[in-house]
């Protein structure tokens, strides 16, 4: 199998309140050394509560944010070192779809110009070819090409997310980072968007990083799932395996929050419930970041950072119990 993206020891820390790192400046530890590989054509789900660094990781991978340290390799190219035209070209190949289809579309631009902007930036088409391409993209996402002259406010939330998808597709990307693309939509619309993304993946050979805040949202679309907590990956496995055999207490807690319709499965399931909220990334706990909420915490958990351990084929988790 071919690896399209590799993330190595990626760290992203922000000075609190923006600006520069200074003396005594508090630091937001948003992403704290994550490692993973993404296979060509797959969907890797990235799940965690808000503030776990999943969106920051996504933005850092395409260098919307500069990484603090670590390496990002996309199709053999070092994204972290790319500049000028190389960086522009990498950004074309790695597109992003955002959570809020209301905020991410410029309200003063027509849908045609929103979808065509990437064509202009990357000089992919002009004149009639540009217009034809915009019409084609609108058809692909199920909108009438006649809608090219309308403005975003004339569309529903689901339609706006489709426009965001057309904008991402316009430049022929290889990888799309989907940052909670369905979280803001009605439940009835969520499945439509997921189905469309799956069809596009099949048709265009796309690879997705699919970011979400709960496991039920990534279940149907992901081939593999990484669970993040406070800027670290705590477990990563094939989707089916993660649901069937979760090993990290945090993954078990996330799964416990999802109801299972089958009572036979429900009866055999070990439920764990965690209280409280994620600690502040400004002052994360020593050792295992999950120890302030973990029902199984023991002495070693505050002393040593648990490392990801191989638990079987395609399954790793980081916990001192394992
Ligand atoms: Fe819980 Fe300790 Fe495992 Fe962390 S390392 S998840 S605190 S048992
Ligand atoms: Mg987010």
TrEMBL record:
One record GO biological process: transmembrane transport
Species, as recorded: Desulfosporosinus fructosivorans
Classification via NCBIfam families: oligo_HPY, PRK11308.1
Entries under InterPro entries matching the protein: AAA+_ATPase (IPR003593), ABC_transp_ATP-bind (IPR050319), ABC_transporter-like_ATP-bd (IPR003439), ABC_transporter-like_CS (IPR017871), Oligopep_ABC_C (IPR013563), P-loop_NTPase (IPR027417)
Designated name of the protein: Dipeptide ABC transporter ATP-binding protein
Matching Gene3D superfamilies: P-loop containing nucleotide triphosphate hydrolases (3.40.50.300)
Source organism, top-level taxon: Bacteria
Any Pfam family hit: oligo_HPY
Keywords: ATP-binding, Nucleotide-binding, Transport
Family: Belongs to the ABC transporter superfamily.
Domain ABC transporter: from-to ranges: 5-255
Molecular function GO labels: ATP binding; ATP hydrolysis activity
PROSITE patterns reported for this sequence: ABC_TRANSPORTER_1, ABC_TRANSPORTER_2
């Amino acid at each position: 199998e071919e690896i399209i993206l590799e993330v190595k020891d990626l760290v992203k820390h922000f000075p609190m309140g923006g600006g520069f790192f200074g003396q005594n400046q508090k630091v937001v530890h948003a992403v704290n050394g994550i490692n993973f590989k993404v296979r060509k054509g797959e969907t890797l789900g990235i799940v965690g509560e808000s503030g776990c660094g999943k969106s920051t990781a996504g933005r850092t991978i395409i260098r919307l944010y500069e990484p603090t340290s670590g390496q990002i390799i996309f199709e053999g190219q070092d994204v972290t070192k790319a500049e000028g035209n190389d960086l522009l070209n990498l950004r074309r190949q790695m597109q992003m779809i955002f959570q809020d289809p209301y905020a991410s579309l410029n309200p003063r631009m027509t849908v045609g110009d929103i979808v065509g902007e990437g064509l202009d930036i990357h000089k992919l088409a002009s004149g009639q070819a540009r217009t034809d391409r915009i019409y084609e993209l609108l058809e692909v996402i199920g909108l009438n090409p006649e809608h090219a002259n309308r403005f975003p406010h004339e569309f529903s939330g689901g339609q706006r997310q489709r426009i965001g998808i057309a904008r991402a597709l316009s430049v022929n990307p290889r990888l799309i980072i989907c940052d909670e693309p369905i979280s803001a939509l009605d439940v009835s619309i969520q499945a439509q968007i997921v189905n469309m993304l799956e069809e596009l993946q099949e048709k265009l050979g796309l690879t997705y990083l699919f970011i979400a805040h709960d496991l039920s949202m990534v279940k149907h679309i992901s081939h593999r799932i990484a669970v993040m907590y406070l800027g670290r990956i705590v477990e990563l496995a094939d989707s089916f395996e993660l649901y069937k055999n979760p090993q990290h207490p945090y993954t078990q807690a996330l799964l416990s929050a999802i109801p299972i319709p089958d009572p036979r499965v429900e009866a055999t399931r070990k439920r764990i419930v965690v209280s409280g909220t994620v600690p502040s990334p400004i002052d994360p706990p020593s050792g295992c970041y999950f120890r302030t909420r973990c029902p199984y915490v023991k002495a070693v958990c505050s002393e040593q950072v648990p490392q990801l351990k191989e638990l079987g084929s395609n399954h790793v988790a980081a916990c001192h119990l394992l």
